[in-house]
Amino acid sequence: MLLYVLRRLASAVSVVVATMFAGFGLFFLAPTDAAGAICGNNCSAERIAHIRASLGLDEPFLSQFGAYLTGVLVGRTYEAGGVVVECSAPCLGFSYQLNQPVTALIADALPVTVSIVAGAATVSLTVGVLTGAFAARRRGRVADRVAVAAALGLGSVPFFVVALISALYLAGTVLPRAEHIPISEDPLGWAAGLLAPWLTLGVVSAAAYTRHARAAMIESLGEDYIRTARAKGLSERRVVYRHGLRAAITPVATLFGMDVAFQLTGALFTEAIFGLPGLGVLTLRAFAVFDLPVLMGAVLVGATILVVMNLVVDIAYTVLDPRVRLT
Amino acid sequence: MTTTPYLAVRDLTVAFGDVRAVSDLSYAVPLGRTLAIVGESGSGKSAAALAVMGLHDPATTRITGSVTVGGAEVVGMAPAELRALRGSRAAMVFQDPQSALHPYFTVGAQIAEAYRAHNAVSRRAARAHAADVLGRVGIPAARRRLDDYPHQFSGGMRQRVMIAMALVNDPKLLIADEPTTALDVTVQAQILDLIADLRREFGSAVVVITHDLGVVAEIADDVLVMYAGRCVERGPTRTVLGAPAHPYTWGLLESIPVVAEKPARLRPIPGSPPNPRTPPTGCAFHPRCRYPERVGDTACRDRMPELTGDGDRLSRCHLPRPDQVFRAEVLPLLGTGDQHVR
């Protein structure tokens, strides 16, 4: 088990480094010039060259990438407007447009995104699995058809449309206005401020869980051990929601691992539409003004979250299914 | 031994849509006796057993006739009453313990759950009781094995767990549906002995469903042979196996391999069981039977024979003197003379 985790961690690190390398290369090859973006419209060729030199943009690709990796591991220094900025590890670069280290920017934005994704994932898992189980129990009947149709309908509407409607008509009226209050300051305010984005993102991604959980439940309810449970004289509720649901959770966990990527993308829209200062908004802004260091930082954090979540799900299998052994 | 039947099935018919799985089935099992129900796959023996437990989905199954367990009518019983009956007074052991036990719960939890479903006791007490029962069915170090999952047991031990789960509430009726089919031959005898011991110990009524006449000879007091959803022959095991009165039972006997000095050829029953959607006219067995022409005219093709006989000994065949046909024509083929019953 420990050996397995160590091996997986090693491969996780190589995946993250490869992602960074690819991301770095992509921006390096891009036709937009970072120095030009910093300098603005009325900019002399001399000044651009000066900025390029001070950012190290004129150095070869590999040495830039090397300097970046070094920064992540041990920290480095940046020169900004004549001042030398100390950027300690993990240094994800320095945003010249915002005049701040990327690590600090992400440290501010990450809790917002994590709060949104964690809350939304809780909502989608709960709503999706319960709806799926409910539909499976009434397979073929009206309640089942309504649940399936609703899941299909919600899953077909582009997410940003649902988010826009919810932001315009629900937040601030039926639901509290969307805002981010750090959980350490006011846990209740934190939950209230994020309720609208949670429900929006959660209910939309619940659609996939509903379909998955329904299929998994229909399969598990047809198993012999369900008949055994009935033969023991258990109540129908216990048969379905204990014996049936327990077996349906494993396939749902698989979906959960893959769904985190969708949730992160969904958080990007959610933050932009509800005006929450998270990683998504930070990335969108960086994208618009070609703030390469911030984009790289976001890629790195996103890749790390995905890789870690996949590892967590694989380890969770050993808890969910006693027959699974990790070797 | 009491003669009042604890389980009484009268004119039971089980239909899925317009397919009849069981037709007009009647039998009775008193406390302390074992009835074996024999037949091929699809003969309706499992469908009949599930009806006794009320385990068919009422939305897709139509059940008529009567099933009484300890005097209580099961057909049409309210769900709550049915739940109280299942697992307490009447319990069932299923064919394949690999799939019939829940893979995600420990055996201790599964057995204790069956106990707690019918007894208001603490978790701790239920767990202690589960360990007792597990020990009683012959699982070594029962207390330590409570926290193991089904996949950590061998096939035979898993079936013992299944039996322990069925016995946890001391049922008066035990139905075992092909309890040894999924097991190694060496383990089969142990499981049969266990069932026989438990019946002696608790004096329950036992129904064993099987397609294996060896199992019947070993464990059953009475035997009921089913074909295409109907009883074709019924009676005490010694008479049914010693002097069977139905060509289908003869076919079953002929298709058992026997260890003898001069091996007799196995004679499988020709053809295959009828499709329940399009049952044959007349006697359901006539397309595979060797004797319709003996009956003369076209009776076998036209008329379903009645289940006739005296007292406990019944059969459903148009042949005028089946006992003579058996002695003269079938017995020599069995290769064991009069000793064909083990």
UniProtKB/TrEMBL annotation, chain A:
Where in the cell?
Cell membrane
Q: Which residues form the signal peptide?
A: none
Query: Which InterPro entries does this chain map to?
Result: BPD_transp_1_N, MetI-like, MetI-like_sf
Which CDD domains does this one have? Answer: TM_PBP2 (cd06261)
- Native species of this protein? Actinokineospora fastidiosa
Family of this protein: Belongs to the binding-protein-dependent transport system permease family.
- Which ranges carry the ABC transmembrane type-1 domain? 110-317
Transmembrane parts of this sequence: 12-30, 109-134, 146-170, 190-209, 294-320
Q: What protein is this chain from? A: Peptide ABC transporter permease
The UniProt keywords, alphabetically, are: Cell membrane, Membrane, Transmembrane, Transmembrane helix, Transport
Q: Which GO terms describe its cellular component?
A: plasma membrane
Q: How does it sit in the membrane?
A: Multi-pass membrane protein
Q: Which terms under GO biological process does the entry name?
A: transmembrane transport
Task: Read off the lineage from the record.
Answer: Bacteria, Bacillati, Actinomycetota, Actinomycetes, Pseudonocardiales
TrEMBL record, chain B:
PROSITE patterns, alphabetically?
ABC_TRANSPORTER_1, ABC_TRANSPORTER_2
Entry keyword annotation includes Metal-binding? no
- Could you name the Gene Ontology cellular component terms for this entry? plasma membrane
Q: Which InterPro entries match?
A: AAA+_ATPase, ABC_Ni/Peptide_Import, ABC_transporter-like_ATP-bd, ABC_transporter-like_CS, Oligopep_ABC_C, P-loop_NTPase
Instruction: Please name the Gene3D superfamilies in this protein's record.
Output: P-loop containing nucleotide triphosphate hydrolases
Q: What is its main location?
A: membrane
Q: Which example biological process does GO assign this protein?
A: peptide transport
The keyword ATP-binding belongs to this UniProt entry's keyword annotation: yes
Q: Which UniProt keywords apply?
A: ATP-binding, Cell membrane, Membrane, Nucleotide-binding, Transport
Task: Enumerate the subcellular locations listed in this protein's record, separating them with semicolons.
Answer: Cell membrane
Q: Which GO terms describe its molecular function?
A: ATP binding; ATP hydrolysis activity
Which SMART domains does the entry link to?
AAA (SM00382)
All copies of the ABC transporter domain together span 7-253
Q: Which Pfam families match?
A: ABC_tran, oligo_HPY
Task: Output the superkingdom of the source species.
Answer: Bacteria
Q: Which SUPFAM superfamilies match?
A: P-loop containing nucleoside triphosphate hydrolases
User: What is the membrane topology here?
Assistant: Peripheral membrane protein
What does the similarity note say?
A: Belongs to the ABC transporter superfamily.
* UniProt protein name: Dipeptide/oligopeptide/nickel ABC transporter ATP-binding protein
Species, as recorded:
Actinokineospora fastidiosa
